[in-house]
Amino acid sequence: MIKFGKGVVKLRIPILIITLALMIPSALGMAATRINYDMLTYLPGDIETMIGQDILMDEFGKGAFSFVVIEGMENKQVAALREQIEEVDHVATVLWYDSVMDLSVPMEILPDEYYDIFNSENATMMAVFFDTSTSADETLDAAAQIKEIAGEQCFVSGMTAMVADLKELCEREEVIYVVLAVVLSCVVMTAFLDSWALPVIFLVSIGMAILLNMGTNIFLGEISFLTQALAAVLQLAVTMDYSIFLWHSYVEQQERFEGDKKRAMAHAIKATITSVVGSSITTIAGFIALCFMSYALGLDLGLVMAKGVVFGVVGCVTILPSMILVLDKVIAKTKHRPLMPDFGKLVRVVVRRYPIFLILFLLILPAAYYGYDKAGGEVYYNLGGSLPEYMGYVQATNKLEDEFSAGATHMILLDKNVSSKDVKNMVTEMKEVDGVEFALGMDSAIGSRIPDEMIPDKARNELESDNWKLLLVQSKYSTATDEVNEQIEVLQDIMKKYDETGMLIGEAPCTKDLIEITDHDFQVVNTISIIAIFVIIAVVLKSISLPVILVAVIEFAIFINLGIPHFTGTSLPFIAPICISTIQLGATVDYAILMTTRYKKERYGGQDRVGAISTALTASLPSVIVSALGFFAATLGVAVYSDVDMIQSLCALMARGAIVSLLSVAFILPAMFLVFDRIICVTSAGFRPKKSNK
Q: Among candidates 236, 246, 237, which has minimal Cα distance to 193?
């Protein structure tokens, strides 16, 4: 490794030139990477709801679906508006009263239940189908045009409207996320490092690594909005401690090689690679564990973040040391006294009073695990729940509920050969299901008061294809509620009685699948991340006992972090427990590894357990505190600022998780070492004092 370090020092100018040159294609690649705002597209493609979506597109030319609520318009005005909406590119169908009947035929000829589908006391409603998918750019443009055509009297609901609002909000906020993360991280590093210039150098180096990571996402085709929003902030927070480790090592090596900064940097790079690679592997393992989710959002986030950690490590041992050497005079001129206090008294308290911290650990653990276990079942899956009340989608959804008692809209695909009699019987049964407002298909709509010849061919074609019949079922229950999920199960049982090949599709059935899939994913990802990190620690530290202790300490911190929402009555987005359990474990176990490595070195050097642990704690605390506070600062600003609840919740959990992990490592881990020192020495390589190895 020393050869590598010397090579970086020698080639520092070419390294910086090449890196700067790579910033141009990276920026272009980042700009060209498409962002996906539709969380349901990450469901497995082989489940019935997703297969049904494909059939709806292929057979009926219908992809996205929205309800449009219009207030204060006469029927003729609404009819004219419908015609205008139908002219919008990628609008496949607009269903309203005049889709089934000519306006010259009085609405009263319709049975009351069908009249009520389209009308309320204060508003009328039409269903709009698009010929492109929910989150396609063409669909989003079409939804925007519809809003523009209809003006303030129009409220557009549905997944497309939600995606459009989410996109608008994220694009408005994403730059602020990065600015906040950079500014607050800079404040922390300025306070605790010994140069005013160092934080800027660190952030520029990390920023280059982030841009390289985001630019290479173009090879993935697209990434999710969640990945786009969090990747830069998370990469900054996770890889910042690598920069801190390099600087502290460089300072130590300068004392060893006084007057020879190049040699000191070469040895600092060697030392950093040894420590950072070991700790970064655990972080990468945490992100790679997300890739094992059936819900492909995990693959998206995990792959981008694992890649980001790799870029962060490479940048830390190439870009950063090159910048430090080139800007050495600037760093020297901006030296100041860091605010880091003397931890001697705190270390003595931790070491002498360690039984107190073990008792606290044992007392808090059951309650923390209880909250953690409960909070996992108290998450929300309503994707629209991430949006603030002032967004158009939320207002439109509220209008639907208030004016039409409309919640989720289901679509049923039946085999074309199912008889009209069976369809009518099926619809009759479905109308009796709790929470069903109406069930509407071509066969069920044709009654004795409406002769078959009065049904326009166009209307018939909208609800029938060569192979399938399409029915709409309106529920008064909202998506992702227990009531609608129970309703879906009953409707599926009824549907399968009449057609085994029938499919129930739509936002609510997809969300029900999402609930079942991610619940399983949480168990899988959590298990994989723990096992992977356990094995990595065992190999890196050459120990059987240490992986158990280190993972237990960080898992304890995770239990506290994810358990707090249960006791505070806070509902988390469904993705939070999965992501936080792996991110916090992978990112903050580095704190424990750093302290353990120093403890091992001191124990091998001949110190007794108390002396070795005291030295390890004293030496490690400054780096761990700066790293944890940097992580906290980078994510806290986003948590406070963001109006997207999913992003706000994840960042709040990461910020709190960094502090809880810091406290666990500072107080619980030393106590564990003191209690299990003899077992650790027997079950680990490199802990026996030199004199006992003779």
A: 246
Beta strand 222-224 with 123-130 is: unpaired
Of 387, 432, 669, 643, the closest CA to residue 548 belongs to 669
| pLDDT tens profile 412-435 | 999 988 888 898 899 989 989 999
**687 vs 243, 600, 665, 669, 678, CA distance in Å?**
28, 5, 20, 17, 10
C-alpha span between 406 and 157 (Å, rounded): 11
**Rounded distance, CA 659 to CA 310, Å?**
24
Copy the structure tokens of residue 369. Answer: 């695990």
Which pLDDT belongs to residue 105? 53
Say which DSSP state 342 is in.
P
Give the pLDDT score at 10.
93
Residue 115, pLDDT score: 63
In whole angstroms, give the CA distance from residue 344 to residue 605: 21
Q: How far is CA 254 from the centre of its chain?
A: 42
DSSP letter for each residue of 27-89? HHHHHHSEEE--GGGGS-TTSHHHHHHHHHHHHH----EEEEEEES--HHHHHHHHHHHHTST
Distance of CA 597 to the CA centre of its chain: 32
pLDDT tens digits for range 199-233: 999 999 999 999 999 999 999 999 999 999 888 88
| Assigned token pair, 605 | 């050097």
> What's the rounded Cα separation, in Å, for the pair 484 and 505?
13
